[in-house]
Amino acid sequence: MQKPLAGLGRRNLVRELTAGVTLLAIAIPLNIGYAQIAGLPATAGLYALIVPTVVYALTVSSRQLVASPDAAAAALVASSIGGLAAAGSADYATLALAQAILCGAMFLLLAVFKLGFLANFLSKPILVGFVGGLALDILVSQIAKMLGVKIDSGGEFVDKVVGLVTGLGTANLLSIAISVAAVAVLLGGRRLLPVVPWALVVLVVATIVVVLADLDDAGVDVLGEVPAGPPALTWPIIDWSMWLALIPSAIALTLVTTAEGLLVSRSYGEKRGYRTNPNRDLFAFGLGNLAAGASGSFAVGSSTSRTAAMDQAGSRTQLPSLVLAVGTLLLLLFGTALLADIPSPAIGAIVGVAILPLLGIRDFARLWRQDRFEFVVGAACFLVTLFIGAIPGILVAFVLALINLAKRAANPAIDVLAAGGEPTDSLLDEAPRGALTAPGVIVVRLAAPLFFANGSVFDDAVKRAVRSAGERAVRHVVIDMEAVTDVDVTGAESFEALLAWLDGEGIELSFSRVRPDARARLTELGLLGDRRVFDTNRAALAALAGTAAPPATRKED
């Protein structure tokens, strides 16, 4: 088992501490913004950086993955709890705690029963569409904040857009000026000096300007008073009906975090040459979310952007996360007065710029070029998430993932092999060329398990191969089973129908390169019988090519 802070030594101590200061500068303004997106006080975002961060950093297998609430999680919290309680109310905050605890329990179950593979159903198009829909919904709220326009941030997307458009006449020119300057600094600074924490620079400078010029009296919204003190241990007390109502959103949060978190963890582990343990990472997410629910925060996930920032800063341990926790605690103890005058337009600009990449514009363009069906999957998930809701979006995503899986499974590669083993004829083409592997012999390769989705397809494909070659020219059909890992009952029934047809045509069926587990399955289903099984295709051809001539007459199909 990997020790906490693995990889830390004297040589990299200073670098890791410096990276921790950078992470502190990045995380504080973003978490304040994410808490506002979630409909929670700023302290909820800051509390997430203390106990949950420490618990996660000391238990995770990844040396670099940063755990924190992110924009997508915050939007999902707002959209799922907004219909159950009024944003900003005590009941709303209590539901957010309960939701985090449910997420923690689900992560622990995934870890204990090793069910992390379920997140594999969230394919790239689904994640792009789901996160993109949430990001656009967030962006409308942040644009309103940047313009100084009041809208219902917990409402539906269409209502937000209508509120923004109709409220443009009430926009505050000073808020717009702060926002434009903030966006210019964030985008320009990132290109010129990417190592500088420009989000912190924007917050500090904007706050100083607001204080010196009394811009809050001129209509510029500010964050307001932030309660001082460390997070207190708590536990949500709600009815069982509310616990049940939170389960769908907790499932969605858990699955999205699992898919993204495990992918990022594995990729950085491979990139930097250390091992990661997916189940231990899920366990760490579980403990982190339980800690979040018990310390006044909300659901914690993985932060891809902050993990990338730490990697660029040279960090290879979890020490920066511990520095972040200590720094945030000191801020809550002694520096909350510094937060009260932070202008909301600056926070909106920081969050807006941070979520722009989440819109997935480049990803959608790539999907359009590479696979139109997967583009449709992503677009459908995007639209449902945006216009109907996050939970329906994730449900539609799973349905589309299953449709996509079935579509691909129902059309596996089925080829006639040449004597040398390479494909000569795809049997899924409209007009196969009628190739023989050798005189009187066709070797057919199925590159998938034989099951209910492709059994009839395989049956039809083999018949087409025999007919296109000329039924009188074919004496033997050999099924190359190297890629067939399993056969289900429905696939076996289709296979039996094929066997009956081949027997009626006087064609002998043999198998080659059968896996041990597949051979046992064929025997169990009664498909093997006394049919010949060859170790290689070459052995099959040597034994079958040039054998007895076909019968003089055959049945017509």
TrEMBL record:
Residues 439-544 form the STAS domain. It is a multi-pass membrane protein. Gene3D superfamilies: STAS domain. Coiled coil: none annotated. The chain crosses the membrane at residues 12-32, 38-59, 71-90, 96-119, 126-144, 164-188, 195-213, 240-265, 319-340, 346-365, 377-403. The keyword Transmembrane helix applies. It is found in: Membrane. Keywords: Membrane, Transmembrane, Transmembrane helix. It holds the Pfam family STAS. PROSITE patterns: STAS (PS50801). One of its GO terms (biological process) is transmembrane transport. GO terms for cellular component: membrane. The keyword DNA-binding does not apply. This is SulP family inorganic anion transporter. It comes from Agromyces sp. G08B096.
